[in-house]
Design brief:
With 95 residues, the protein is an alpha/beta fold. It has helices at 6-18, 51-62, 74-86; strands at residues 22-26, 34-37, 42-46, 66-68, 92-94.
Length: 95
């Protein structure tokens, strides 16, 4: 199980950065709490969410994108695999 801490949030943000995604925390009328701009690889997450809400949004988004593990640093790869083991999400990965 993942801890819902700022450190976990930072590690998740790093995984997205290594996949060339930009994360922005802004206000908006998102039904799901986030918006994905596919063409520009931009993720917009509701800025009013607390740390746990932000982590849950990023985990939801992670299940929607293809993660190329060869782009991850060893620490990020280890954390990503921990997410795979601990989450029920079907995260797409390209090895």
């Amino acid at each position: 199980m993942l801890n819902f801490t700022k450190t976990t949030l930072q590690k998740l943000e790093l995984i997205f950065q290594e996949q060339d995604y930009t994360i922005r925390y802004e206000k908006g009328n998102f039904q799901s709490g986030y918006c994905i701009v596919e063409n520009n690889k931009i993720l917009i997450v509701n800025k009013f969410f607390d740390t746990e809400g932000r982590i849950n949004c990023l985990l939801d988004i992670l299940s929607l994108i293809v993660v190329m593990e060869e782009l991850l640093t060893p620490k990020s790869k280890e954390f990503f695999r921990k997410i795979l083991k601990s989450q029920e999400y079907k995260i797409k990965q390209v090895a």
